[in-house]
Amino acid sequence: MKKILIAFVGLFTLALTAQAQKKSGAIQFETTLDPAAMASANGIQLSEEMKARMPKAVKTNFELLFTATNASYMPVEDTEDSNGGGGGGGMGRMMMRFGGAGGAREYYYTFADQKLTEVFDLQDTTYAMPSKLTVALGNQNFNMGNRQNNNANGTASSSAVQFLPVPPTQEIVKSDETKKILGFNCNKVIVKTIRKAKVLDVERDIVDETALWYTNELGFNFSPNPNLWTEGAVLAIENKGNSTLAKSIEYRGVSNKDVTAPKKALPITAEQYKAKMEAMMKRFSGGQGRQGGAAPAGQVRNIVIN
Predict the structure, then answer these.
(1) pLDDT of 233 strictly over 90
(2) Which H or E run includes 238?
(3) Which of 74, 162, 224, 296 has the most C-beta neighbours closer than 10 Å?
(4) Mean residue pLDDT across the chain
């Protein structure tokens, strides 16, 4: 009887240890960008020469470290592209910094108060900006189709798609589709972004769909892109020319230092950051600022469809 009791206590202890280990670990993500496909989705006309010079795929690796109370998400190595280390490398780094899911920013989560902090470098200074998980694309890529492009002869040609200066509409559509990612049961949500545009001078709606696959089995909220989240932990994001997927998970001990925002980061508000970026854009464009019809951030109208 005593041996049975000792064995039971041993098994119970092992079970508790295994359960404790599953509260911390690392999830590896891979983001794949197809620059030509992204340009096409945004109404940008590219010459065959420009397409040939672009990498076929730009891949970036990210890591989510998590404990029972905190998490961090950041890139773990330089961007790689399908054209090797040649001319495409610059494009890859540019896409990582400005166009990737998460970009070159680091994200720090605290689960108890559902706080999210973005840490990034700007003009040789490291900033920490309060953020949140939400569905709000803001003005991301909305004005790309209004830019001019160079054709194979080096002359400028206007895009056939001209987005109008009105706020886009977003619809969140819950799907019945499910699938397993890393052994977790995941549900699908589709985020539809509808933009008004003129296509060959005919006004019409341009619909862009992004699929989110999330699970509630990890016990915390997360998304590789904080502006693409509805609930749970998002393990996959699928869009035209842009996808992010959780590739592996390892349960292990994680240091609190690795999931805590650096103390050296200077606090900055979203309003201050916006003002800095607008000032930089004015200097970059010779004081004229940005032209075109991008909708200001925060003006996306959300419609939830169950």
Answers:
(1) yes
(2) strand 233-239
(3) 224
(4) 76
